[in-house]
Write a structure and sequence with these properties.
elongated
Length: 153
C-alpha cells in the first residue's frame, strides 16, 4: 500500500486507462459487453461480471507499474510478476468467455463436453486469474516500494 500512496496522477491515469483497456479487450470479444460484433451461445453468468471487473482493475494496476513515476523517472526494470500477469490475463479471458465459443475447448471435448466439463471449471479459472493478477500486482508493488528507482537528473 505504501507504493500506491506514492503514485502520481500519471500512474493513476495509466492504471485507469489500463483497466478500461483490459475491460474492453476481454469484455467485447467474450460478449460480456453486448455489441453487434459478437454474440454468445450461452448467456453471461452472474459471476462473469465481478470476475471481469476485478481482473480489469488488477490488470490496470499491474500495467501501471510499468509506467515511469514521473517525466524524469524510469519504470521499474524488474521481471517480478510479469509472467503471472500475462497468465492471469489469459485465464481471465478464458474464464469469462462463452464455454462453447472457445474453439480450443470445442476441438478438445466438443460442445457437450464444453458445457459438461469446461463450464463448471470456469469459475475456478476466474479465481485463479484473480489470484495470479493480485500476486503479480503485489510483487510489482513490493519491488517498487523496496527499491525505488532514482530520478535521472
Amino acid at each position: 500500500m505504501a507504493a500506491l500512496r506514492g503514485w502520481t496522477a500519471r500512474r493513476w491515469a495509466a492504471a485507469i486507462t489500463g483497466a478500461l483497456a483490459t475491460a474492453a479487450i476481454t469484455g467485447v470479444p467474450t460478449a460480456v459487453v453486448p455489441t453487434p460484433w459478437f454474440s454468445r451461445s450461452v448467456p453471461v453468468q452472474w459471476w462473469n461480471y465481478p470476475a471481469w471487473a476485478v481482473t480489469a482493475a488488477l490488470a490496470g494496476l499491474v500495467l501501471a507499474t510499468y509506467v515511469a513515476a514521473g517525466p524524469s523517472a524510469r519504470p521499474t526494470d524488474s521481471d517480478s510478476g510479469r509472467r503471472l500477469g500475462y497468465l492471469g490475463g489469459v485465464l481471465s479471458f478464458l474464464a469469462i468467455g462463452c464455454p462453447v465459443c472457445n474453439k480450443v475447448v470445442l476441438l478438445l471435448v466438443g460442445a457437450s463436453g464444453a458445457l459438461s466439463y469446461w463450464a463448471p471449471l470456469q469459475p475456478l479459472v476466474a479465481v485463479a486469474s484473480v489470484v495470479l493478477l493480485a500476486e503479480a500486482a503485489l510483487r510489482r508493488l513490493a519491488t517498487e516500494a523496496s527499491c525505488p528507482v532514482p530520478a535521472v537528473g
